[in-house]
Amino acid sequence: MSSIIELQQLKFHWQVEKPVLAIDQLEVCAGEKLFLQGPSGCGKSTLLNLIAGIHKPVAGRIAVNGCDLNALSAAARDRFRADHIGLIFQQFNLLPYLSVQQNVLLPCHFSQLRREQACQQMGSVEAAALALLQELGLQDYLNSAVTDLSIGQQQRVAAARALIGNPRILIADEPTSSLDSDNREGFIKLLIRECDQHDITLLFVSHDRQLTSHFSRIIDLQQLNHAGAAL
Amino acid sequence: MKLMLGLVYKSLFNRRLTALMIICSIAVSVALLLGVEKVRHGAKQSFSSTIAGTDLIVGARSGSVQLLLYSVFRIGNATNNVSWQSYQDIAANPNVAWSIPFSLGDSHRGYRVLGTTDAYFEHYRYGKKRPLTFSQGAPFQQLHDVVLGAEVAAKLDYHLGDQIIIAHGMGNTSFSKHKDQPFTVTGILAATGTPVDRTLHVSLRAIEAIHVDWQSGAYIPGSGGKTPLQERALEPQQITAFLLGLSSKMATFQLQRYISNYRAEPLQAVLPGVALQELWGMIGIAEKALLLISVFVVVSGLFSMLTVLLTGLNERRRELAILRSVGARPVQIMLLLVLETALLTLLGIILGMVLLYSGLMLGLPWLEEAYGLQLSMSLPQLAEFKLLFLILIAGTLTGLIPGYRAYRYSLADGMTVRI
User: Which residue in A10, B16, B27, B265 could disulfide with A23, CB within 3.0 to 4.6 Å?
Assistant: First the structure.
């Protein structure tokens, strides 16, 4: 399998004396279900921001989907993220003033690629949204206000939004930490099923070791990141 | 762009109470600014139409503004009088179509008394060449008849047939009064919104009659002789000023020159329009101050919008981060906030216009009656649109401040703001 995320000699810091991230090497293969583990403050968010192209590394190489992010301008990185990366966060993933459907469709407004892919698969972006919501058991909530949904339902809407238009990578940043254990298991299974079905690489970040059983590969960021050791 | 507008609209609707307050605050300041602008225009219009139809105002030589002030606005006093002889001579000039003599100097409870002739009611014009009309009664007939301006009658609660005493000289509490000769109200003029409303009108003969026993400014009973007033000619020796209407406008400058070079006594003739312009130029500073104040009101309205938006921005960091995570660029986030302020300003302007024009519609008749302010109900003029456009630009530029902040936030926060 080809690698879809590749980090080499990656370094990042806001201030020189306080390095946040230093990773010698990390390679994620396409279709992999990676569990990235580590306590808060170990640089997880920073790593995700780097992979998503929000921040630029201070040194080192970062290639996503065969594309060297360092070589891209900020605007191009934004476009790259919109095209290839779906994101789910811990909580409050949705815009409260948009309906479920409008929330799911958001990436299609910002990325032409994902709009086209969604249309290619389902005929229209609306049909693609409906199909995803159906798979996630939310077809009855298409026009509901997101504030009327339970947190578990909100997270599934966020998943549908991250999945629409087939991005190459799905980054989930502690998406289950606000769910109870039953919902947690269900959500992760759903996520992995969707990623398998749509051939999407999953990057799952959490500090909860109980969830590791679902994943093909587990990485401890604390061991990978030796920024703290340099001090 | 369409997407952005949709997001702006929905986001604002989600915060509709705050948004409504911002819109209202802008609306009020816009209504005030436009209102002041309208009043300014109206005031200038009303001011310059205080007197109309008159071609020349003639008085003793002083300054044109001073002549205008004491003859038309009834403010201040003449430095010198015009002899009856000169008046008759000039009034007889073939170019003169009509003339109205003015004799000022007495008062009644603070209001000026004007001695004049029937020509006043016939030829005096104000506004858009409107003649004076009577709301009650008729012009003076008898020697001791008086015609009141609308404000005099209303404020002092005078009615037809009431008897009033005229005081010598000016001032509310003048001690020397023409008590011996009371006047009867025979007419009340309709409101004009000009100094006419604040004037009592009597005949020139009446002015002579009440001063019969006065010598060098002091009342000495019997000093004027014992002939009954009715049997006297009572021809004035002097008047204060007079208005001329010419048969041909072409003759105006010629006659003006003739009067300026008048041999018998030093006189001057001024064109009312020119003198009004000159006077407006002097009092126009107040008008500019008014405008300045309302500009500041608009600025403070924009500042309050800025305050509210900046305060709310921190709570919206999550929203901005979500947009960022689905692919919005920092520039688009900034655009979002600029569009938001532009939309708020635009809605504020529209609401302000609605406020102003509905207010005008209701208040216009009252304004005209009470203050003689003639405001036009017409659609906003080009100048007003320019002003509104400036406000819109200012409002939109204001949006750059929260916009830039949001831009910084979305660069620093990225996609991960934890609340």
Answer: A10
The secondary structure of B132-156, three-state, reads CCEEEECCCCCCCEEEECHHHHHHH
Helices B16-48 and B272-313: crossing angle in degrees, nearest 10, is: 170
d(CA A158, CA B208): 98
Confidence of residue B28 (pLDDT cuts 50, 70, 90): very high
Whole-complex ipTM: 0.85
CB contact under 8 A, B416 and A79: no
Segment (H or E) for B84: helix B84-91
Does A173 sit within 8 Å of B327, measured CB to CB?
A: no
Q: Closest chain A residue to B9 measured between Cα atoms?
A: A97
Residue of B nearest to A96 (CA): B14
What pLDDT, on the 0 to 100 scale, is given for residue B370?
66
Whole-angstrom distance, CA of residue B240 vs CA of residue B115: 9
Q: How confident is the model at residue A231 (pLDDT cuts 50, 70, 90)?
A: very low
Full set of structural domains in chain A with CATH: 32-55+74-219 (3.40.50.300)
Chain B residue with Cα closest to A165? B326
What's at A27, amino acid-wise?
A: E
| Per-residue tokens: B329 | 């660029």
Of residues B343, B339, B301, B336, the one with CA closest to residue B406: B336
**Residues 34..53 of A with a Cβ closer than 8 Å to B: which?**
45, 48-49, 52
Structure tokens at B196: 């006419």
Q: Which of B118, B162, B145 is nearest to B210 (CA)?
A: B145
Mean pLDDT of A187-213: 87
Q: How far is A90 from chain B (nearest CA, A)?
A: 8
Contacts of A161 in chain B (CB under 8 A): 326
Q: What are the residue ranges spanned by the domains of chain B?
A: 2-47+284-413, 56-270
Chain A residue nearest residue B8, CA to CA:
A97
How many angstroms away from the CA of A93 is the closest CA of chain B? Answer: 6
- B329 close contact with A: CB closer than 8 A: yes
Q: Does residue A12 belong to the interface with chain B, where contact is any CB pair within 8 Å? A: no
Instruction: Look up tokens 């001032």; give the residue.
Output: B171
Q: Is the pTM of this model over 0.90?
A: no
- Chain B nearest-CA distance from A137, in A, is 22
Question: Tens digits of per-residue pLDDT, B166-180?
Answer: 887 765 555 667 777
Total number of residues shown for chain B:
419
**Quick check: A87 contacting B, CB < 8 Å?**
yes
